[in-house]
Amino acid sequence: MTKGSRDNHAPRDTSTGKVNEADIEQFLIENSNDSVYPQAVVGTQFDTGKEHIVDVLLGGGAYKKTKKAKRWISEHIGGILISLKYQGVEGTAEEKIPFEFIKLQNAIDKYGYKSAIIVLCGDGGWTLKKTYLKDEFISKMKLICPNVTITDEENFRTTIG
């Protein structure tokens, strides 16, 4: 049996990102007056038709199909979409940030969410973090994604808390 090229790579350790995600979820629960729905299905992706899952839906409304269900299902009654992007080691995840803007703006336009925030977490592997946080990049993204903002974790925590 021939292995595909994906099988030649060592498994990635995503535990650091998951720990960071859980920490921010707990921070939101403790510091926000809105409901916190982690891992929420907020509609379908415009490009693939697959479920669009955000790290956190803050506010709005959501439910679980069963008590043991892994994901919340948005009721599409507002709220803020939060996308947590953790980069602990060098990689290509950071190159996907502009597309994340587009996906989030599409969800806002299609389903009526209030806004979206991309939060850049971790410091170790980012090479474009400063670029993404510069006014020039933000101004360009606002032209096509007026309801999506980007910030780093420190500013996010200060703004929410």
Could you explain the architecture of this structure?
Helices cover 34% and strands 25% of the residues. It contains five helices and seven strands. The chain has a seven-stranded mixed beta sheet with strand order 3-4-1-2-5-6-7, with helices on both faces. It is globular.
The portion of residues forming beta strands comes to 25-35%
Count of DSSP H/I helices = 5
* CA distance, first residue to last residue: 54 Å
Helix fraction by DSSP (H/I, runs of at least 4): 25-40%
Radius of gyration: 16 Å
State the order of secondary-structure elements, H for helix, E for strand.
HEEEEEHEHHEH
Shape descriptor: globular
Q: Could you report the average pLDDT, rounded to the nearest whole number?
A: 87
Given as residue ranges, the uncertain stretches (5+ residues, pLDDT < 50) are 1-15
The total count of strands amounts to 7
Cross-sheet strand order for the largest sheet = 3-4-1-2-5-6-7
How would you characterize the largest beta sheet? 7 strands, mixed
